[in-house]
Design brief:
168 residues, alpha+beta, PH-domain like, 2 domains, four-stranded antiparallel beta sheet, 7 strands
Length: 168
């Protein structure tokens, strides 16, 4: 049995890693806010009330940064490889979406490596088009993704895929 041209050799959804849940991040903001309130009380009592405003500003900036972090964690990147097509789809936070389609036979992988950290950038190149993928992954995850994608691309370039019972 020959597997068809629509048979996926690789199908991966990449998401940015977040160490805390959104609820955990807001819990941190509330704890920092309470600590800032307690630290600001002596300044207000001594008459240095503008200092309390700066404590509040710090908490507001922290909340804004955490909200941006949570929102950026919603971005996804889907990579699907079949013997006839490499399809990359990015879904951004606000709902926008971009798609790229490559012929696996003409597609090459290029990696930038850092001596200490490993792979820093993975780029797909095909017929004058260059696309960086997996930007939200850490170095170890980039290495795993690169290995899987490279293997699947080699399999797509090797030709038709046969089931184990047809190799006779």
């Amino acid at each position: 049995m020959t597997l068809g041209p629509d048979h996926p050799l690789l199908s991966v959804t990449l998401r940015p890693h977040r160490s805390l849940t959104p609820q955990g991040l807001w819990l941190v903001v509330i704890c920092v806010g309470l600590a800032s309130l307690v630290a600001a009380i002596p300044f207000v009592v001594m008459g240095f009330w503008p200092v309390a405003g700066f404590y509040g500003l710090d908490v507001a900036l922290l909340a804004f940064a955490f909200r941006a972090s949570v929102n950026s964690g919603a971005m996804t990147e889907e990579v699907a490889l079949t013997p006839v097509e490499l399809h990359v789809r990015r879904k951004y936070v606000k709902g926008a979406m971009e798609e790229w389609r490559f012929n696996p036979l003409w597609t090459r992988l290029h990696v930038d490596r850092h001596e200490e950290f490993g792979i820093s950038k993975i780029t797909l190149r095909s017929r004058g088009t260059s696309l960086s993928i997996g930007q939200s992954l850490g170095p170890d995850d980039k290495q795993k993704f690169y290995t899987a994608l490279s293997s699947a691309l080699c399999q797509a370039k090797a030709g038709p895929v046969f089931a184990p019972d047809e190799r006779e």
